[in-house]
Amino acid sequence: MNNNTPFTQSISLKNLGIENAKIHYQLSANELHEMTLALGQGIENSTGALAINTGEFTGRSPEDRFIVKDSITENQVWWGKVNIPFEPTAFDALYKKVTTYLSNKEVFVRDSYVCADPNYRLNVRVVTETPWANLFCYNMFLRPEEQELENFKLEWTVICVPEFMADPATDGTRQSNFAILNFTKKIVLIGGTGYTGEMKKGIFSALNFILPVDKNTLPMHCSANVGDNGDTAIFFGLSGTGKTTLSADPKRKLIGDDEHGWTSENTVFNFEGGCYAKVVNLSEENEPDIFRAIRKGAILENVVFKKGTNEVDYKDVSITPNTRVSYPIYHIDNIQPGSIGKNPKNIFFLTADSFGILPPISRLTPGQAAYHFISGYTAKVAGTEAGVTEPQPNFSACFGAPFMPLHPTKYAEMLSKKIQDANVKVWLINTGWTGGAYGTGSRMKLKYTREMITAALNGELDAVDYRNHVVFGIAIPQSCPNVPSEILNPRNTWEDKDLYDKKAIELGQKFKANFAKFEEFANAEIMAGSPQI
After folding, report:
1. CA Rg value for the chain
2. What is the rounded CA–CA span in Å between residue 145 and residue 225?
3. What whole-number distance in Å separates Cα of residue 330 and Cα of residue 349?
4. Is the pTM of this model over 0.85?
5. Residue range 274-298, pLDDT digits in tens
6. Closest Cα to residue 504, out of 470, 455, 479?
7. Active site residue 221
8. Which of 258, 326, 354, 409 is catalytic?
């Protein structure tokens, strides 16, 4: 739908239990932008983008994310600290409170869909309390044409009410904020938080159940792009590892930056219609595509302006290190038409290893690939969170544990089969530290990481010599075009080689300790991919 075209159709929300609301339906991006400014809920920055503050919550709240335990989910969901059960009756009561709260109020409604492949399309209606939250959904979900809305068949509903506070004593929540998935009623209910990512991740979590269970399709927390030869590359990685940055390659067309499905037809499709990128330390030199995408229509979250200006200081994290931008994918020039790719040939697991142990690039066997996929490793840098004074390992199964309703081995088995059926090469890329841990060593240069990935994509690492890492057993190339050979083996970059060996064993032990909870579900091939200690 055109960014500037007003939409005239009206709708009712009575079927959702929302009565007599003043409904702003399907407003254009420009209308939502201007309304946010008029309400004093945002500021326009020097590039024309909208800057807003999400309030108390500047990120997701994992302990306040629930799934209703019912006949659909009871025996399928991997219940625990990630997937916390919620009683159906408690959901119904809380839902009634929310819809009563929205009745007689001004609300913003958007009909959209997710999954770019028409065979997997899922229609979504979003009801938000603020215009900027609705603009976020304009950016992040796929935008139907006006004629598609005439017979729009609603499948899932997202309701987001940041100003509504739950009462834990009566509502069954942990505290006043909540994000609850109900697979029977097909509703994502969010309250008490203005962080927009809860809406995006709510639908992503729903798809992570629906696609493997009902559609024989692997959902992936990854970015993806396509080369001139039609080969698709997939990039898995947790926040801060470079997933968005490295997939935005001027020589390859972007499919999407965060969430994709890999079908039984061996195609890869984007779930979304936009990108949601971290902007801490953003510069035009290092991340030109993202930098230039921040213009009218984009939403900056929790950023700080340079004193006396409306120019963003991307180094200022005084509100949060999780500063972000949301923009529609068409703000990127080099995108794949239709957001679908075929013929996946390379998978990259990205980690920002702040211990400085893992090689900057290594090749994985299928068993190692499954092991590292289930592990989902990166490491937090000292100072990024309260109490973190030295590097801390961060394991997130399938590189997206907070959004995975099924047991991680379900996704790993699907991935392993696809890797072997399609003869895909799998690489582990360390975008983190070299020459020592954080505080001693230095961050791997982005230009070297790009060169290593380019060499892998071009097949230039197929015929070089490899040596296995003494602890992790992963195959390290001994040469790579346009990259100094001495940095390829991390041990070479440490002054104290004995200290490196000691720390490598310690990290390997951390991997094994984390994997202990998965061992009973893992086959011999996967276990053979574990560190050799």
Report:
1. 23
2. 25
3. 26
4. yes
5. 999 899 999 999 888 899 999 999 9
6. 470
7. yes
8. 258
Instruction: Read off the pLDDT of residues 54-97 as tens digits, 9 standing for 90 and up.
Output: 999 999 999 999 999 999 999 999 999 999 999 999 999 999 99
The Cα-based distances of 260 to 12, 138, 339, 528 in angstroms read 32, 18, 10, 28
Q: Is 485 one of the annotated active-site residues of the chain? A: no
- Residues 316 and 323: their CA atoms lie apart, in Å, by 9
Q: Which helix (H) or strand (E) holds 474?
A: none
Alpha carbon 288 to chain centroid, angstroms: 20
CB-CB contact of 55 with 162 (8 Å): yes
Active site residue 60: yes
Half-sphere exposure of 526 (CA within 13 A, CB side): 22
Residue among 28, 33, 54, 60 flagged as catalytic: 60
Q: Is the dihedral of CA 281, 284, 290, 296 positive or negative?
A: positive
Q: Which residues touch 302 (CB under 8 Å, ≥6 apart)? A: 53, 54, 58, 319, 320, 322, 323, 324
Q: 324 catalytic, yes or no?
A: yes
Q: Distance between CA atoms of 172 and 87, rounded to whole angstroms?
A: 8
Dist. CA 501–CA 486, nearest whole Å? 17
Calpha distance 200→33 (Å, rounded): 19
Cα atoms found within 13 Å of the Cα of residue 38, Cβ hemisphere only: 8
